[in-house]
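Feature request disguised as a bug report, sorry. It would help if multi-protein outputs had a clear separator. Right now it looks like this:
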Amino acid sequence: MRRSIPHTALAVTALALALAGCGGQTDSGKGGGSGTVSSSPTPAPSTTPTPTASPSASATGCAPAATLDVHDSGRTVCLSVGDTIRISLDGTAKRPWKPVTADGSALQAVNSGFVLQPGDASAAFKAVSDGRTRLRSTRPLCATQTGRVSCLGIQEWWVTVVVK
């Protein structure tokens, strides 16, 4: 007598394996990533890395920073008018970062130099007036490959900049 696996069990197993490939928190691309998936502008609570320019945050809850990378997502940083902040997000050709955008008028885009690797996003902004601006970028959570299962997840990167 021949044994057979029920089609439902086989389908569920295949689906679980396909989702496990995209749903993990690891990043196969260079630069590492937080692996955070966000469906709204409010991120889940996370630990805040040590600021680049100063080891302590001010009483307003933000810390000074001169450079930002993928690990700074969700932070609030402070600048003085005239300061410049640089952003460098390491991506891959299959999981590229979109260009960094600024929502607000406190920062003005300046020349950030060259982006040498496909998928990277590089930007620089000068603080031109008091206010609050949010910097944003996104990239696909899963690499897209022809003939392979893919997902529609988006990794969101954002930082709030307070200019005083």
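(second protein starts here, but nothing in the output says so)
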Amino acid sequence: MLLKSSKINEFRLWGLLLTMGGMLVMIIGLAGVVFDWGTIGRVIAGIFLIIGLISMLGSMAIYFWAGMMSTSAVALDCPECGKRTKMIGKTDRCMFCKTILTVDPALASEQADTEVIVNEPDTKEAAQDTARN
């Protein structure tokens, strides 16, 4: 459970890894120019800079995608830690304490024996429905 995290945090992690990897590849590529390897050094630097640029653009796309998903994610309070967390899909993990959360009653009954499950979407309609009943 130590390495598990929420889906939004997973996307952000991959974006960060692509950013750092792209920067590392660009720095390694500059060795061809810094150590004066001649024409082949410039070619190596150019190739590595292009690979790093592609990695950085991929990182930008992943961060944009994670941001767009975050705006439409269901926000709810975690029953374990009490903090506000965002959820993508039917099941996800709390961003803070890594508890498995779900808004699907069918999945809640299957996993209720092993993990703490929440079945409370944060919508005004759900609150109004429970108030009427």
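Even a blank line would do. Unrelated, but nice: Residues 38 and 120 are 64 Å apart (CA to CA).
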